[in-house]
Amino acid sequence: MNKQSSDRTGSGSERPLCESASSLEHWLTSVVGLGMALAVGVFFYVPIVETAASLEVLSTTAMVFLFTALWLVLWGTLELAWEWRAGRVHR
Questions:
Q1: Are 48 and 66 in contact (CB under 8 A)?
Q2: Which residues cross the membrane (predicted)?
């Protein structure tokens, strides 16, 4: 038996490797994160536009960057929470 297959079995005090999330789970958390980002964006639209207006030409770029960053942070947070709840996050 080679070392690679023995590592996967998790013999002794080693931790066994867990199954990874499916593509459906990744897709689901991304869509939920996008929905949450859109909800936050709609709720805070007026203050965001007022703040971004001070950038003049770059205001739309700043808004797109903000919404994209918000979506990615929410997606990552939801993904981590999903994996933790499924028991696939280890120390």
A1: yes
A2: 27-48, 60-82
Q: What is the predicted pLDDT for the residue at 89?
A: 72
Q: Of 88, 85, 86, which is closest to residue 17 (Cα–Cα)?
A: 88
Q: What is the pLDDT of residues 42-87, one digit of tens each?
A: 999 999 999 988 988 889 999 999 999 999 999 999 998 888 887 7
Query: Residue 7 has what pLDDT?
Result: 47
Measured CA to CA in angstroms, residue 38 lies from 31, 55, 85 at distances of: 10, 22, 25
Do 61 and 51 form a contact (C-beta atoms < 8 A)? no
Q: pLDDT tens-digit profile of 6-29? A: 445 545 556 555 667 688 888 899
Tell me how far apart the alpha carbons of residues 33 and 72 are, in angstroms, rounded to a whole number. 8
Name the amino acid, one letter, at 63: M
Whole-model pTM: value is 0.70
